[in-house]
UniProtKB/TrEMBL annotation:
Pfam families: HTH_3 (PF01381)
Protein's name according to its UniProt entry: Helix-turn-helix domain-containing protein
Domain of life: Bacteria
Gene3D superfamilies xrefs: lambda repressor-like DNA-binding domains
InterPro entries: Cro/C1-type_HTH, Lambda_DNA-bd_dom_sf
Organism, as annotated: Jeotgalibacillus haloalkalitolerans
Residue ranges of domain HTH cro/C1-type in the record: 10-41
Signal peptide, first to last residue: none
Length: 81
């Protein structure tokens, strides 16, 4: 996947993998708070940074998880449009 993931896609990846925010944050090496603010849409939320996007793709690839397939599954389950 060449383009950067958005907030909904980031959250969908985590949910499809069956992970809580803390578990996903631990895998990525970021704080739960950072992940939470990135996934949310509130006034204090973050956009998905290039660094976080690359980190997610790198870690999933290292675990032999295909990001594109995960996102397609999320679409089939109605998590993404």
């Amino acid at each position: 996947m060449k383009r950067k993931m958005n907030k909904k896609e980031l959250k969908a990846v985590r949910l499809i993998l069956g992970l809580q925010q803390q578990e996903f944050a631990d895998i990525l090496g970021v704080s739960k708070g950072h992940l939470s603010r990135t996934e949310s849409n509130g006034k204090d939320s973050y956009d998905v940074s290039d660094k976080l996007d690359e980190l997610v793709k790198y870690k999933l690839n290292a675990m032999e998880i295909n990001v594109v397939e995960i996102l397609e599954l999320a679409k089939k389950r109605g998590m993404l449009k």
